[in-house]
Amino acid sequence: MDWGNAIVRSKHVNASGQVTSIEMELKLDGNFRKTKKKITWLAQPTSLYPMADVTLLDYDYLITKKKLEADDNLIDYITPVTEFKEEALADANVKELKKGDIIQFERKGYFAFDGEVDAKMQFIRIPDGTASSVSSKAAANAGAAPPVVQADAPVEPNTPVMTKMYDVATVYGGDVNPSADTKMYVVKSTSVYAS
C-alpha cells in the first residue's frame, strides 16, 4: 500500500473464474488519486499465518422519520433492516486485537473489534461523518435518497449548511464564555459560533 500506481499487465484465473495471480508493473510516478480502478490484496497466507474470517457490521437508523409526531404510529416508521453484514478475509495480524481495538480496513473505513461469533471476528463500522456513512442505508437500498435538510445557521454569509443531522438547541445558551484556571497560552477562538 501507499507505493503509488501499478499497471496490470496480465491476470490469471482458475477454472471457476477466481483470480489466482496478477502480473503488474510498478509506476511510482503515477497519481493514485486520478486512478479510477483500484485493487487491494492480502499477503499469501501460510499455515503459520492463515487469513482470518471476519464479518464487517454496519448499522442503520432505527426509524425512518427524523421526528415522530404525537399522532404517528411507530410501526409505520420502523426501519425494515438495521444491520448489514459483509463477510471478508483479513490479514492474520487481526487475531492479535483485543475487544474494543480500532482498526482501519483499506477502502472500507474504521472498525472496532467486537469479539468473535461462530469463529468469525466481528468488526463494527465507525461512522466517519461523510454523507455516505450518516445517510440511511434503508433509503439507499430502496433507491430513494434520504431527505437533506438545510440548517438554520449558515457557516458563512449566503452559504447554506446541508446536513442530515437533527437540529438541537444549544445546551448553555448563546452567551457562554467559559474560563479556566490554567497556565496555557490564551488563544482567541476562530470558530464561527464564538462570540
Describe the structure in your own words:
With 195 residues, this protein is mainly β. Helices cover 5% and strands 29% of the residues. It has a domain at 1-39. It contains two helices and nine strands. Strands 4-3-7-6-5 form a five-stranded mixed sheet, with no helix packed on it. A two-stranded antiparallel ribbon has the order 1-2. It has a two-stranded antiparallel sheet with strand order 8-9.
Q: Strand tally, please?
A: 9
- Helix and strand content put the structural class at mainly beta
Query: What is the helix content?
Result: under 10%
Beginning-to-end CA distance, first to last residue: 45 Å
* Order of neighbouring strands in the sheet with most strands: 4-3-7-6-5
Largest sheet: 5 strands, mixed
The overall pLDDT average reads 76
Provide a count of the helices.
Answer: 2
Low-confidence runs (pLDDT<50, min 5 residues)?
A: 143-159
**How does the overall form come out from the CA principal axes?**
extended
Bin the strand percentage. 25-35%
Helix and strand element order: EEEEEEEHHEE
* Radius of gyration over C-alpha positions, nearest whole angstrom: 24 Å
Explain the layout of strands and helices.
Layout: E1 5-13, E2 19-27, E3 52-59, E4 83-90, E5 102-105, E6 109-117, E7 120-125, H1 131-134, H2 137-141, E8 149-150, E9 162-163
Parallel strand pairs: 3-7
Antiparallel strand pairs: 1-2, 3-4, 5-6, 6-7, 8-9
